[in-house]
Amino acid sequence: MKAIEITSYGAPEVLRVAARPDPVAGEGELLIRVAASGVNRPDVLQRMGHYPVPPGASDLPGLEVAGEIVSGDAKALADAGFQVGDRVCALVAGGGYAELCVAPVAQCLPVPKGWSDVEAASLPETFFTVWSNVFERGRLQKGETLLIQGGSSGIGVTAIQIAKALGATVIVTAGSDDKCEACLKLGADHAINYRTSDFVEVAKQLTGGKGVDVVLDMVAGDYVAREVECLAEDGRLVIIAVQGGVKSEINAGLVLRRRLTITGSTLRPRPVAFKGAIAKALREKVWPLLESGAVKPVIHSTYAAAGEPSGAAQAHALMESNQHIGKIVLTW
Ligand SMILES: NC(=O)c1ccc[n+]([C@@H]2O[C@H](COP(=O)([O-])OP(=O)(O)OC[C@H]3O[C@@H](n4cnc5c(N)ncnc54)[C@H](OP(=O)(O)O)[C@@H]3O)[C@@H](O)[C@H]2O)c1
User: Fold this and answer.
1) Do residues 43 and 69 make contact, with C-beta atoms less than 8 angstroms apart?
2) CATH top-level class for 2-123+268-331?
3) 179 Cβ below 6 A of ligand 1
4) What's the confidence (pLDDT) of residue 308?
5) Residue located nearest, by CA, to atom 37 of ligand 1
6) Is pLDDT at 307 greater than 90 in this prediction?
7) pLDDT at residue 89, as a whole number
8) Half-sphere exposure of 237 (CA within 13 A, CB side)
9) Residue ranges of the domains in the chain?
10) Residue 220 C-alpha to ligand 1 middle, in angstroms?
11) What is the CA radius of gyration of the chain?
12) How far is the centre of ligand 1, averaged over its atoms, from the C-alpha of 134 (Å)?
């Protein structure tokens, strides 16, 4: 099969098309003929050498794919209600930038009715991450307020739409007025340009001084202290990335007085059973929202993976330029 290799750590050009042996599905797994592969920021970090591959995972980048089932563990397929030929999208721990990809059956979901393979490939990584962090760890409830840092990111556009569809008020931050506008169009109630306004002040004003119930943070660093300041009583801060650094000095008094919870997680190294439980919850609670059109994939651009040079390099360069709104997808 053709695949995109990280030939050495470095700039986007280290991503090159290579020939690799076809992977084979083992127990509890299926093999997908990949039509499209989603691109995520963790792929960029992996390419730069900042995100080690978990033990047992493919060294090829790519955490999500969509395409057709070509073979698999017959019992696992039957138990999950899948057949060879079905179109699925899958969360994988690596190996997504390839024409063929093995995935645990438990981490596969049907392509939601009405959406293309490109759109379906853009879903798993952000939908699993948002469900697990905002709704499970962060326990966001209907009627509560969610502050999303980086509202126009792949993660952000997913979090805005699911939180709105499930009855929360959504405030986002983004780094330009255009990005703020895009977040409002997706349903966010308020968007704060973090380069020109202080999100702590604005979030407090917008909530009548009460503060927000949940923060989804992909920045960390000095943001953590500011987020602690703008959380409401019993508020929850969920950290999913540390783009602004790993250290922060917080006012611990606020944590006690307001009974705050500070938590976080990374999805990739978690076991199949954990990811399978998220897949079940998504199928029950979120797939109907995709099928009704209440929640939509947001595709910024697509690139042909097997081109010469590979579109994967252009896709990564775009992601690093931070010009995108929503998701970037590779096609095969
Ligand atoms: N923990 C997990 O399981 C997990 C899983 C998947 C992804 N992630 C992380 O989640 C983040 C988003 O991933 P993605 O694939 O959606 O990437 P992406 O589309 O490239 O988004 C990165 C976002 O970070 C925002 N950002 C950077 N500095 C900011 C700041 N100071 N204030 C507010 N926003 C800021 C950018 O916003 P502007 O362009 O507006 O500045 C951009 O929207 C990445 O850091 C990724 O590593 C974590």
Assistant:
1) no
2) alpha beta
3) yes
4) 81
5) 150
6) no
7) 98
8) 27
9) 2-123+268-331, 127-264
10) 11
11) 20
12) 15
